[in-house]
Structures are given as structure tokens and as C-alpha cells.
Amino acid sequence: MGSTEIQTPASDFRYIPLSYSHADSQASALRLILTIHPDWEGPDNKIEFVRFTDGITNTLLKIINRKPGWTDAQIDNEAVLMRAYGNGTEVLIDRERETKSHALLASLGLAPPLLARFNNGLLYRFLRGKPCGHFDLISPPIWRGIAQRLGQWHAVLPSQGINATTVKDLTVTETPDAAINQQDEEFSVIQPRRAGPSMWAILQKWILALPVATPEQRSRRANLQEELQWIVSELDDGKGLGEDGLVFSHCDLLCANVIVLPSEDGSALSEDGIAQVSFIDYEYAVPAPAAFDIANHLAEWVGYDCDYSMIPTKSVRRQFLTEYAKSYCQHRSIDAASQSEIVDKLYNDVDRFRGIPGFYWGVWALIQAQISQIDFDYANYAETRLGEYYAWKRELDGSREKAGDELPLREQRWAQEA
Which residues cross the membrane (predicted)? Predict the structure, then answer.
């Protein structure tokens, strides 16, 4: 991690009254970086911009200064990441919550320090390391490192995400019944066990944001709302780890959001052969059941192309949870004798939640299909991910077996012992 700036509440961060412009990318980014680094202006500096992503959710630029005589490590330690928000993303993401969550994580050494906010984004320190690729997630040294880091997240972070004194600022704005369209008079908004921000409230917000211009769209949204009501009634039971069954969760641990950190000797592994990792991108971080956050990550082992042959088997899932529980107990100062009990409970809970990531990202993709301008078939992706959810539900009620249909590959892999 780069510099060690002292973290302050998000409302106290430096605010820069400027905006990043996609049409004038380099010039607008240069104005932002020179505002926080005026010493980077002049003939002894060589500022470069490295584009990481450019999509509907954000534009991410790494801004570096190749000063003469600086080593690569020195350059990276002073590098800044600029995240500029995409148009329309407020439908999916609460940017104020993201900023405050990042600040909390940074204060505990779990995220790179925030430097400033600007009109449509954030500036923060670059995190040295290597982003994971699809196949990295199935590497035991890496998934063990992920399990340990996730156990730490769930153990040390308050379940509300930020301090209780400011949690009201992060509450997801739920559309009241009176604001729902007249054709939705029968529409009943869910009420999770705990008020305030949670993945349940996020899902409700997303379903309310689905298009209703046609009878087919209205019917689809009504059906998804019925499914959400059933899911909440079954799984929002307050029996998981954390306060009232919720822990502060990342909720988007795909491969690119896992960074393998270099050790002091430059290698990627610690003395015990486990990779040291950190998590980035906290756009979807919110209180959620630990089993959801874990199941959501394990679902990402299939990659962007949904290769279900990559789903972790029973034995691998138990090993993952063993590493997780070891870390969770260590950071919560829980007696080691409780680890096996936590593993057993989580093993069953993750199994119960295995279909929910498909529902979560399926609804998300339906919205993206309406607002995204990037070259990706979100509509088809939505059907694929929702298909995971419905396949899981068919196993629960036995309808797949009763119909004599073949067990889907994802379910086959999930039920495989080794």
C-alpha cells in the first residue's frame, strides 16, 4: 500500500469542484491530479495515464509520475487511482455509501487511502499488486488467501458498515408504496428484519427500478418481486454470523476485484504458501449474510463466461470455509474450538444461499441491459444468471427430478464430493 495518510470521515475529505470528462479525458484528469499534487507540474515530472476500465459503472485511471531516478516501486507508491462514475449509475449504486464504506475500510487498513472527492468521482492511492484472472481463483494459494481476508472483513468490520452515529446517511432509499405506479397497486415492498442498508434492501431497490413500459416487463418485475419476497421469508432469518445475521460484505468478489499483494521479498506467497490478497472496488459493499458474500464469491469461480465446470466441489468449499473460520475466529478472538462448529454452520448456509447470487446479478443485468452503453449482452447474461437461481429452486422443490430433466452442470459440480 502506498502512503499512510490519516483517514477522516468521508464528509471531511477534500472536495475538488471539478469534473472528469469522458470527451476530454486526459486534460480533465490532469486538472484533478494537479489539484492534489501541484508539485507534479513542471519539467522534472512526466505524468502518464493508464486506463484500467471504461464502462457504464465507472472509468478507472491510474495516474503516475515517472520522475527521473524513481524506481517502479516508488512510482507505484505515489500513484493515484481516479474513479469517475458513469452516467445513470445512481440507479444501481449509492455513491455516498461507497465513499463512506471506502473511508471505513481505509481506516482499518483494508483499503487504500482516500485522497479527495470531485464532482463525479474519487481519487485514492494505488494498491500495488496483481489483479486476479479467472483461473487464479481456483489456485489453492490464492483462494486460501481470499478466504482468510474475507474472514477478517467479516470479523472486524461493524455489521452496519459505518459508525452507528452516521448509519442513517447510508440508508437505501426505498420507494414508498405511494410512489409506485398505479398499475402496481398490488405491489408490496419487502421489509427485511433490520431496517437500513442491506443486500435485501438493495435487491428491492433494483427490482423497483426495472422497466415497466410493456405488459411483459410489468409481469417480469412482478414475478421477480414474488421471488424476492419468498427469498427474504426463507433466508433473512437472523441466524448467520454477525449482528442479526448480517456482516459488512463486499458483495462483488469477482476475480478482478482481488489483488495479490507482493511480499517483502517480492514473491506473491507468504511463508505458509498462502497468497496475501486485498479487495478493491466497494461499490456494492453493504451489510449482508456472510453466507451470501461467500456463495457470491464462489459463484465467480466460473468467470465472465459462466464456465460451470469451475464451480468448487464439496471438499474444496469445506477447505475454503476452514481457512475463513480460522481467520474469522482469530480476528474476533474466538476460541479455536469453535472453528469446526462455524465451518459446519457456514457449509450448510452457503449451500442454502448458492442460488441467490444468480438472482442478485440477474436482476442487476436486467437494469444494465436498459442503461449500459458498453458492448456486452446484458440481456442474455441476465437470463443465464437467473437460470442459476431457478435451477437451484427446482432442486429445492424436487420439480427437476420429478420432470425427469437432467441435472444442470452447475448443480452437478456443486454436489460433487471432490
Answer: none
d(CA 87, CA 373): 10
Per-residue pLDDT tens digits for 123-155: 999 999 999 988 999 999 999 999 999 999 999
Collect all residues with Cβ–Cβ distance below 8 Å to 336 and sequence separation of at least 6. Answer: 326, 329
SS3 389: helix
Q: How far apart are CA 59 and CA 54, in angstroms?
A: 4
61 three-state secondary structure = strand
Q: 269 pLDDT band (50/70/90 cuts)?
A: low
* Cα 198 to Cα 39, 204, 251, 269, distances in angstroms: 42, 10, 11, 34
Q: Which helix (H) or strand (E) holds 21?
A: none
Distance CA 46, CA 44 (A): 7
Q: DSSP of 86-146, one letter per residue?
A: PTTGGGT--HHHHHHHHHHHHHTTSSPPEEEEETTEEEEE---SEE--GGGGGSHHHHHHH
Q: Where are the alpha helices (DSSP H) in 246-355?
A: 290-299, 314-332, 339-352
Domains present along the chain, CATH in parentheses: 16-126 (3.30.200.20), 129-418 (3.90.1200.10)
Rounded to 10 degrees, the C-alpha dihedral 211/213/215/218 comes to: 30
Percent of the chain with pLDDT over 70: 88
pLDDT of 164 reads 38
* 357 within 8 A of 295, measured Cβ to Cβ: yes
Closest among 14, 16, 293, 8 to 166, alpha carbons compared: 8
388/197 Cα distance (integer angstroms): 26
**pLDDT exceeds 80 at position 374:** no
Instruction: Compute the average pLDDT of residues 293-308.
Output: 95
CB 268 within 8 A of CB 275: yes
What sign for the dihedral angle of Cα 110, 114, 118, 123? negative
Question: Helix or strand or coil: residue 404?
Answer: coil
